[in-house]
Design goal:
Structural class: alpha/beta
Shape: globular
Strand content: 15-25%
Radius of gyration: 20 Å
CATH class of the largest domain: Alpha Beta
CATH superfamily of the largest domain: Metal-dependent hydrolases
CATH architecture of the largest domain: Alpha-Beta Barrel
Largest sheet: 9 strands, parallel
Amino acid sequence: MTDVAGSATGTASSSVGLRITGATVATPKGPQRAELRVVAGRIASPDPMPTSADVGIDAQGLLIAPGFLDLQTNGAYGIDLTSELVEHPERLWQLAEHLPSQGVTAFLPTVVSSPSTALEGARRALLQRPADHLGAEPLGIHAEGPMLAPAKRGTHDPEHLRDPDVSLISTWSRADGVTLATVAPELPGAAEVIRELVAHGVIVSVGHTDATYEQVLAAFDAGARAGTHLFNAMSGWTAREPGAAGALLTDLRVTVGMIVDDVHLHPATVLAAWRLLGPERTMLVTDAIAAAGGSGGAAVLGGRPITVADGVVRDEQGSLAGSVLTLDRALRGLVATTGAETSEALRTVTSTPASLLGDQDRGHLGAGARADLVVLTHDLEVVATFVAGRLAAHPRPDLLDLPAEVKGT
């Protein structure tokens, strides 16, 4: 399968050269006043002499960060990825066009436990990238299921749950579009499946699990390197049994996803987790569903009816069923809850998920990196988003005046 992320290079030649001045740039060492140059869709080394080919942008008083990565999104803006992509592959790309409005420039479309045709449909949709696509880049599928523990299935349909088996994942590989897989490690056959997935380049995340602390550590030994929505749908941490949550919080080998929406985690829980994980191991995700970006009411997840009321998403049994969160709001929530420095908080949606993916092109603004960048207020409100140097969203034109050449790219 062609590398989906690499397909964006076809758009780079159509982006204009940019010289962005006046802004504070988020760097691993903290915010710094710096100029950014974009040439052919990538960050270029500073040039003390402006050229006639550069289009100037004055971003005085604003903050520039790498584009955000969301590694768990089930849909948004009326689009349910699990149930729609078999018959409507274009819906993947329609979602991708919306995501830059929240600063997202790359994502993993997530398929929940469902018939195998849903995952195959999502993989085929990856290959049908429109030639004129301008939006976030899907970097492969996050298969959240079907190898999940029935006791911790949440809203996943029990009819579609399966025990781990190498025959089930015989066609799953990073090269063929499966980038991340959530697996419950206590299930029979899980260790063998984890090793097989890792051998084929798939990142394995522990989640929807009732595993003991020791069983989760065994999954890490087999190659699992992430955790799916910390504390939710997993064995908790008690005085004498740390469970899955305790293993994820204390093992330095893993990156841990968190949904910071004032629903999935109590603020005190977020603060405690942040102090243990820090920006190197905390990865914010939305777990967004089709109703995200909308006005609430009836919605679906994996084709099953769910309800949104007062910002809380639940299925017919009352279980939490994803969120209506956006990644920029999650970022602001993390800062408000923990008091994290802006540069550290930004790592949770940039360099940390990029590092988990092994993606050296994204998550930073060093010379040679993709020019995926977000212009923000210092309160982390999205002003404009660029993908490979092209303007993909401009939700606050009142805060950033852009030349016509930029608006037309």
